[in-house]
Amino acid sequence: MTVSFDGRVARSGWTLRVDGLDIDEGVTAVIGANGTGKTTLGRAVAGLDRLADGRLEIAGSVADDPAASVFVPAHRRRVAMVFQDLRLFGHLRVIDNVAFGLRRAGADRAGARRQAGALLERVGVDSAAWPRRPAALSGGQRQRVAIARALAPEPEVLIVDEPLASVDSSGRAQLRSLLGDSPARHVILITHDPVDVATLAERVVVLDGGAVASRGSAAEVTASPGCEWAATFLGANVVPGRAHGTSVTTEGGLVLAVAEEAAGAVYVTFPAHAVTLHRDRPAGSARNAWQAELRRVDVDGERARVHLGGPVAVKADVTRRSADELDLRPGLTIWASLKATEVTVVT
Predict the structure, then answer these.
(1) Which of 153, 159, 245, 254 could bridge across to 101 with cysteines, CB 3.0–4.6 Å?
(2) Which domain holds residue 54?
């Protein structure tokens, strides 16, 4: 099953243009700077924004085609969307927010509530919160309720816009796992979080200036990001490990010093430009230094992206001049260093 999008969504003074985008099954991350059209793309697939021209198909069925006077309204598409502002029904109790879609699909009240309760437990909302109104919950709890409500009718396509923005650190891993195992055949993940992309996305779509700048697997888009914003975003290194105070031990056994305390399973992230390369063991203020094998060098203008293996697989961005001076080439053993203050710990 494929979501095929080829057309325009026109807004006052601004247009999203999508030329021949096919979104296959699995998790697709949609990334881009603010204002590039990520949410508009999601709204068009959900049936909340109409195409000005073109054609949108979901699983082989036409959902929007202005030339043919075809438009399937949102409530008739098997598409669910979790909005950034959540849009829970303030007058309904939490349990009834989640049961709403099931009731619309024909489930009886008791059956809908049973299914809703099971989903709320799965996303980590305690039963004590079920009789409350959304306004009585924390932001993270409301986010969980919104995800449960979207999953309840078992949509073919699940669109989530910044799904973990309000969730506390203890719940992010749980919800990432839930989204990764979603019963929806398509998950369109609109995100600014490189951990979401690294841990969930099978494919990436980059939007820039209201158009698709790049698309493909994460590796393909990282190699050809299509715009400077995406090059920087996809240059973020994401490394799993276990935290003990102000140190994190990676899966490869490298111990990294970090600036903030944490405990348990975490990810550490740091930009490619924060990794410095040396021919000899570095001296100075960097607390983290390790030997790495140079696997590949990609040169783009005056920038070189260096792919390193060893105890951690990471990327480093250096100038082309530095790459030439260090004589960087595949197979070379080199030292890498990283300041603790450049590392962010994500739970």
Answers:
(1) 153
(2) 2-234
Stretches where the chain sits below pLDDT 70 are 163, 165-171, 284-286
In the block, residue with structure tokens 């409301």: 142
Q: Which residues contact 171 (CB under 8 A, 6 or more apart)?
A: 124, 140, 144
Query: Contact 131/92 with Cβ under 8 angstroms?
Result: no
DSSP state of 138: -
Residues 114 and 151 occupy one common structural domain: yes
Q: Check: CB of residue 82 under 8 Å from CB of residue 163.
A: yes
Do residues 212 and 138 share a domain?
yes
Helices 169-180 & 109-123 angle (0-180, nearest 10)? 120
User: Residue 305 and residue 83: Cα distance in Å, rounded?
Assistant: 35
Q: For residues 310 and 261, state if they share a domain.
A: yes
Tell me the one-letter amino acid at 106. Answer: G
Query: What's the CATH code of the domain at 259?
Result: 2.40.50.100
Amino acid at 329: R
Show which of 206, 234, 262 is a domain's final residue.
234
β-strand pairing of 61-65 with 53-58? antiparallel
Tokens of 41: 């793309």
Cα 225 from Cα 17, distance rounded (Å): 18
Are residues 64 and 72 in contact, defined by beta-carbon separation less than 8 angstroms? Answer: yes
CA angle 46, 47, 50 (to 5 degrees): 130
Polymer length of the chain? 347
| Spatial separation of the C-alpha atoms in residues 236 and 274, rounded to whole Å | 9
DSSP letter for 208, please: E
Same domain, 163 and 288: no
Please state, in angstroms and rounded to a whole number, the distance separating the CA atoms of residues 175 and 122.
9
Confidence (pLDDT) at 11? 85
